[in-house]
Write a structure and sequence with these properties.
This protein is mainly α and about 525 residues long. It contains 18 helices and no strands.
């Protein structure tokens, strides 16, 4: 239990009413202490917060079900239609709502309790899984059902994702934000590791089991989310005037426009999403037609990407200062496109080496697994580094809206999927994926050149909840909102509800960076 004096055991940050800046138990200058640094507890130090642990376990269950849905839905679509275009069309339908709705989701995340948004989203996901399972079990399923349910699932994803991502800083102390964000990325790579291979196995037994299992996982995640205690509600204060939705959106966009590094991060995320993700939608085509490895082979291909992604996430969780994040981001951005292009040409490499070209034990399949694993590693480096930097460089009262703009890039993926699907339908999946991989490589090189802030060492302002850039003028209320109706001293492992003024890393001369 945190002491009444406000100091956590082990010299952590002060609790509400604790020591002033530079006092015992806090880093010099108060909370934040500049860029995120490695501290006692190693790469898993964010798990010292019980609420973050509930969030993490619940989320990895939910995300595992998400990847099971992607694999099972893609395989089912190709089995029903035998069309690469339909596979990409249904994948695109699940992402299309992100384009118009992500920014609205950001406003929702900054206005309402983010935990409640997360619970509502997973209840909707549970219903989607159950509906698909029953349609498959009764033999009534067709591609139009898949298309409609994908749109519904994508709508909830777009509205809830800003709350899911922007909730992390409200669960851990400020100096653990980057670590918590990196560990959160392990949820995705872990889900990508477990979900596909589980779905592939269940598809071999009975396709409906893949959807029933996904529903069961989501059903367990909801009670865990209910145990979460948020340290801070939206920074404006609950029940206070918040302005119009248009004003809220404009405020977030204005902040991004004035920050070169945030603008560069969002554009780099767009490149990685636009060019780097369509090949995942075509994995069922590669598993069935190109590599002839069947549904189990599809699961192994997805698992290989998950293994690489988990390694990438652990690297960032261990080395997560701002400048280290930039290094990982640059490495991932340059490497992911080349590995995707290499994956698409696995059979060509195998033929050149005189290896078998088809089957789950063939040389071509093993080469594809290696490229998929390395591509997953690089992809996780660029995406996790990207999300971590956006989290630590954005003020808490704007974080939901800035994250929503960062997530809106998923709304452009349907266009990439449709273009890739048309090329795959006409000229084959290997050529289509080769082009997307090379597109990711050349566009990333260009962006890193035009935005040197993404790769050069700097002293960017590190934002912490309740800190720099408080509530907008005229929007009164507690500086950090209300902590889930929680009052009194913080519970052991929870972040204090009342935030002292944030300490930020400043440029020489004392002026905060706007990068």
């Amino acid at each position: 239990m945190a002491s009444q004096a406000g100091q956590r055991p082990g010299g952590g940050p002060p609790a509400a009413g604790g020591p002033p800046n530079g006092g015992p138990g806090g880093p010099p200058g108060g909370w934040g202490g500049g860029a995120p640094v490695n501290e006692a507890g190693g790469p898993f130090r964010a798990f010292q917060s019980r609420s973050y642990t509930y969030y993490w376990v619940g989320s990895i269950l939910s995300i595992t079900s998400f990847f099971m849905l992607i694999i099972a839905r893609g395989w089912l679509t190709f089995d029903l239609t035998d069309s690469e275009l339909w596979v990409t069309l249904i994948s695109a339908a699940s992402l299309l709502p992100a384009l118009p709705l992500s920014v609205l989701g950001g406003v929702i995340a900054d206005r309402f309790n983010r935990k409640h948004i997360l619970i509502a989203s997973d209840v909707s996901n549970f219903l989607t899984h159950i509906t698909l399972a029953l349609l498959v079990l009764t033999g009534l399923i067709n591609e139009w059902h898949l298309l409609a349910l994908s749109l519904i699932h994508g709508t909830m994803f777009a509205l809830s994702s800003p709350a899911r991502f922007s909730m992390v800083p409200s669960l851990v102390p400020p100096q653990h934000i980057a670590n918590a964000t990196a560990l959160s990325s392990i949820m995705f790579s872990g889900g990508a590791l477990i979900g596909p291979v589980t779905a592939g196995f269940l598809l071999d037994v009975d396709p409906s089991l893949a959807f029933f299992a996904g529903a069961a996982l989501v059903g367990v995640s909801v009670p865990l989310f209910m145990l979460i205690r948020l340290s801070a509600a939206p920074a404006w204060g609950q029940g206070q005037p918040k302005g119009s939705v248009i004003e809220n959106i404009t405020e977030g966009l204005r902040h991004i426009r004035h920050s070169r590094i945030l603008l560069g991060l969002i554009l780099l995320g767009m490149i990685a999403t636009f060019f780097g993700m369509p090949y995942q939608a075509l994995l069922p085509v590669f598993a069935e037609e190109v590599l002839e490895a069947g549904p189990a082979g599809l699961g192994y291909l997805g698992m290989a990407g998950g293994i690489g992604g988990t390694i990438g996430s652990l690297l960032i969780a261990t080395f997560s200062s701002v400048n280290q994040l930039k290094m990982w981001l640059s490495i991932g951005a340059i490497g992911v496109g080349l590995m995707i292009a290499g994956f698409s040409q696995a059979t060509a490499f195998a033929e050149f080496l005189g290896l078998d070209l088809s089957g789950p034990t063939s040389g071509a399949f093993i080469i594809a697994l290696v490229f998929a694993a390395i591509a997953g590693w690089f992809f996780q480096l660029v995406m996790t580094g990207n999300f971590s930097l956006v989290q630590v460089l954005t003020p808490d009262h704007l974080r939901g809206r800035v994250m929503s703009v960062r997530l809106i890039v998923f709304g452009f993926q349907p266009f990439a999927l449709l273009i890739t699907g048309v090329i795959a339908e006409l000229y084959g999946a290997p050529l289509a994926v080769t082009l997307t991989g090379l597109g990711a490589f050349f566009c990333s090189i260009a962006l890193l050149t035009f935005f040197p802030q993404l790769r050069t060492r700097g002293t960017e302002t590190v934002q912490v909840p309740g800190g720099h850039g408080g509530p907008p003028p005229g929007r009164s209320g507690p500086p950090n909102g209300v902590a889930d109706d929680h009052t009194g001293p913080p519970m052991d492992g929870d972040v204090p509800a009342g935030r002292p003024p944030a300490a930020v890393a400043e440029r020489p001369g004392g002026s905060p960076s706007t990068d």
